[in-house]
Write a structure and sequence with these properties.
Blueprint lengths: L21 H5 L4 H39 L6 E5 L8 E5 L6 E8 L2 E6 L10 E3 L4 E4 L4 E4 L5 E3 L8 E7 L2 E8 L4
Antiparallel strand pairs: 1-10, 2-3, 3-4, 4-9, 5-6, 6-7, 7-8, 9-10
The structure holds FE2/S2 (inorganic) cluster.
């Protein structure tokens, strides 16, 4: 009778099963099959982890593009132009109530807005126009008023920029640009 090779177990030392200890005869392990399954499992593991890595990278890339182009949030009126004097600032909330932002008017024709949350640990930054900076009192962080980029202290990332535009005499927020550099 022809023996199905799939049904034959090969002990680790290759000796006949009849010479193996009783426990191995009762529970034979086919070394070849065992290695084959391990290779197959390992290949499956590699494919799955590689796939997860690719999906993760695509998600990060998508988020980076979204952040660079400004996330799609609805426009919102911040204030009338007359509400903010030249050299002054104004706190507003955008795009939701728990997101404080700061609008600055360093010159008559220049409006700049940032998230008010420090990029270190989210304390509120305050303008110091005499030093051309936004100051975070929590750990003495400073940001450039013109760019929102960190100048000194613990923060390493710029403040998210709020896109603003003038519609007649009204100032509107039109988007949020999260930045990494
Ligand atoms: S929270 Fe702003 S410097 Fe630490």
């Amino acid at each position: 009778m022809k023996v199905d090779p799939e049904q034959v177990s090969t002990p680790p030392d290759g000796a006949p099963l009849s010479t193996q200890p009783q426990w191995r005869q009762d529970f034979p392990i086919d070394v070849g099959q065992d290695n084959y399954v391990e290779r197959r499992e390992f290949t499956k593991f590699l494919v799955l982890t590689s796939g997860a890595f690719v999906v993760g990278q695509l998600w990060i890339a998508g988020k980076a593009i979204e952040a660079r182009e400004g996330s799609a949030v609805p426009s919102q009126k911040i204030a009338d132009l007359a509400d903010i004097p030249v050299g002054g600032s104004l706190i507003f909330r955008y795009p939701v109530q728990d997101e404080p932002c700061i609008l600055l008017r360093p010159q008559a024709e220049t409006l700049i807005a940032y998230s008010q949350k420090c990029t270190h640990l989210s304390c509120a930054v305050v303008p110091e126009p005499q030093h051309n900076r936004l100051h975070c009192p929590c750990h003495e962080g400073n940001f450039d008023i013109a760019t929102g980029k960190p100048l000194s202290g613990p923060p390493r990332r710029p403040l998210p920029r709020i896109h603003v535009e003038l519609r007649g005499q009204e100032i509107w927020a039109t988007g949020v640009e999260a930045r990494t550099v």
